[in-house]
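Format notes (please read before filing issues)

Several people have asked whether sequences and structure tokens are stored in separate files. They are not. Every record keeps both together, in the order shown below: the sequence lines, then the token lines. Line labels are part of the format and must not be stripped during preprocessing.
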Amino acid sequence: MTDRTGPPADPGFPAPPWRARGTLWLSLFTTREPLPLPADLSPLGSRHLLAVLLVRYTEGTLRYDEFAVASPVRRGRRVGLHCHGIRVDSAASLRGGRALWGIPKEPARFSWSEDSVRVSDDAGTLAALRLGPLGRWRVPVPYAPGHVFGRIGADRIHLAGRLSGRLGTGRLGVQEWSGRLPELRRADPLCALALSPARFFFPAGTRQGPAAPALHP
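Then the structure lines:
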């Protein structure tokens, strides 16, 4: 049996569900070393597979930018992403991500130009990413899962988010990449997609039982 997580009193962030519109870029890379995962999560495919996501939430419950690096994983029949790092420029999103879903968000600054974005914090640049034009041909996607596994205390939390919009090819390449992030095998992605315009729906999380500590491969 699962039970729904609830926000604390006076949390400083909106109650779920969160709804938003914006643009999502997603690229898949491979890493030089296998990525560590908690023992209760299994990789989908190779442990070297890394998803890099960049999102601009421009309308809805909150408006903010987000950068994440994550492993595609499963837990039993459920699939989703396990974040190795996730950065946002909204204090409310940071607090809500941690308290509602156990997603370890950290603060960052996003500096946008016409075809690139630089993500940085007080320690310096995390990543500089080049963005290409969206593909001319895009297909409507009425529903796509946007699931993430987090952790609150000793419990594994599952966020069963939903996405919809118009999906096509995109470009999210690497110009600079910090040593604080998983080391990439090469700067060119295996594939790059974009969802724009995109709609996002993030409900309350569900507890999935005890989590396990990270295991190094």
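For reference, the curators noted about this record: The mean pLDDT is 93. The helical segments are 91-101.
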